[in-house]
Specification:
single chain; 23% strand; alpha+beta; 154 residues; 3 helices; elongated
Length: 154
């Protein structure tokens, strides 16, 4: 699970599973409704094949958006901390990072920066339980090793 460049590569376990299940359900519903759209008994008579295709394509788009929840990842190494949430991948040097913590109320860890700034790290989810706790502990070990006495400027 690690590469030579990264000492810690962490992905959530439960979030991608739930996202795949939700995407399949949404797509199935859109396909079923799209196919049943032109049934004579529904009352609307001016719907046709293009409407069916449109509803199914909307399901494909919504399912694709839900599948973005399978992407979160946290990587930690000598270069710094790389966070991939839904779409963007951002690399933060150790001179920018204050730490990783869980907010009092929330679903994902926060990567802390100076001036009370933070970003949510969707990869480290509270519902992953002990696995997420281990990732936090490993992050702190690596933070101590790589950051050492380098502290971010305020």
């Amino acid at each position: 699970m690690t590469s030579p460049r990264w000492d810690l590569v962490y992905r959530p376990r439960k979030l991608p599973r739930w996202a795949i299940i939700a995407a399949v359900i949404v797509l199935a519903i859109h396909i079923i409704f799209g196919l049943l759209l032109t049934v004579e008994d529904v009352g609307v008579r001016n719907l046709g094949g293009s409407d069916q295709v449109a509803i199914i394509l909307i399901g494909v788009l919504v399912s694709g958006a839900i599948l973005l929840l399978t992407r979160p990842r946290l990587r930690v190494g000598a270069e710094g901390v790389e966070v991939r949430n839904l779409v963007p991948v951002r690399l933060f040097g150790w001179d920018q990072v204050l730490g990783l913590t869980y907010p009092e109320k929330g679903y994902g860890a926060w990567l802390l920066f100076p001036s009370d700034e933070h970003i949510t790290v969707l990869a480290v989810q509270a519902n992953d339980g002990p696995r997420a706790v281990e990732a936090m502990a490993r992050f702190r070990e690596l933070e101590e090793r790589y950051r050492g006495t380098v502290r971010p400027a305020n």
